[in-house]
Design brief:
The chain is of the alpha/beta class and 288 residues long. The protein has helices at 26-38, 54-60, 67-75, 95-108, 123-129, 136-150, 188-197, 208-219, 222-225, 247-260, 274-287, and strands spanning 2-5, 11-12, 43-46, 63-64, 82-89, 113-118, 158-159, 164-165, 181-185, 200-203, 232-235, 264-267. The model has no long low-confidence stretch (mean pLDDT 97).
Length: 288
């Protein structure tokens, strides 16, 4: 089971971040991600929101670093850890814009990009950006098909229900022709989208038993049988882990999520400083 980190500082959810994160900057982020790479962690994440309504910030948080410049910086300071958007909202971007911008990032980092994507749920943000909220699921599906056709191809061509393009050059383009696509969400629809169109499913705010139930249902579908590769299942255990002071419960959490079907975990930790965060990373590696 692969282990990755939900990178601290980059996203600060209410009552779910350490005090030191509020004053931290890219130096502390670099310290954590470089340390995670040294310890063998597989990926680090960065989420996306452009602007959060004030009344929503109390529940969703207001701090969301943009993945593109953040990962551009980290790409120059790491060599093996994968950089996973967690997630990009498909409706905010044209697929060719993603293919060009994140393809450039993929080239900069040497093919270490993972594109976590989702259809989004914050209607006010859609309205602010002039993006249609109704029908975003169907549009997102077509955007994923377009991304499959375009990523890593300097002369992409696609014709779908929402997007069509040909006779354009996208240069530079991504190193990976088959960039890993993970679908975020927390519904059976997001899992069906992942099974049919993606490499992985990365749900949030679901209990392990809920994940297991949804996976059991999906395994009995024709779409699952038609897959040519196993589905990556990337789960986010909650609450944050504390392998130093609570190794037993931490091990139990890992086992429970593995039994639920996880092939990878995006981890949060209890921590008091960047140094303590790295100690937690090391303690978890010793535990597993």
């Amino acid at each position: 089971m692969r282990l990755g980190i939900v990178t601290p500082v980059l996203t600060r959810l209410p009552r779910a971040h350490a005090h030191w994160e509020a004053e931290a900057g890219i130096a502390e982020v670099e310290q954590v991600v470089v340390g995670a790479e040294r310890l063998g962690y597989d990926f680090a994440t960065c989420s996306e929101h452009v602007a959060i309504p004030r009344d929503v910030a109390a529940t969703r948080g207001a701090t969301y670093w943009d993945p593109l410049p953040t990962f551009g910086y980290l790409a120059a300071r790491t060599t093996t850890i994968r950089l996973a958007t967690f997630v990009l909202v498909l409706g905010y971007h044209h697929p060719l814009a993603i293919a060009k911008r994140y393809g450039t990032l993929d080239r900069i980092c040497g093919g270490r990009l993972v594109l976590g994507v989702g259809v989004g749920s914050l209607e006010e943000e859609f309205a602010l950006l002039g993006a249609p909220f109704a029908g975003r699921g169907e549009q997102g599906d077509d955007a994923m098909r377009a991304l499959r056709a375009a990523f890593g191809d300097p002369t992409p061509r696609y014709e779908g229900s929402h997007y069509r393009f040909e006779d354009f050059v996208v240069d530079p383009c991504g190193v990976q022709r088959e960039v890993p696509l993970w679908v975020g969400g927390r519904s059976g629809r997001s899992l069906r989208r992942a099974v049919g169109l993606a490499d992985g499913w990365a749900p949030f705010a679901l209990r392990p038993d809920e994940v297991a139930g949804l996976l059991d249902t999906a395994r009995n579908t024709e779409a699952w049988a038609e897959r040519s590769a196993p589905l990556e299942v990337v789960l986010q255990p909650a609450p944050p882990l504390d392998p130093i002071d609570a190794p037993g419960p931490t091990q139990e959490t890992l086992d429970t999520h593995r039994q639920a079907g996880a092939t990878a975990l995006a981890l949060r930790f209890r921590h008091r400083s960047p140094e303590h965060y790295l100690e937690q990373l090391e303690a978890l590696q010793a535990l597993v």
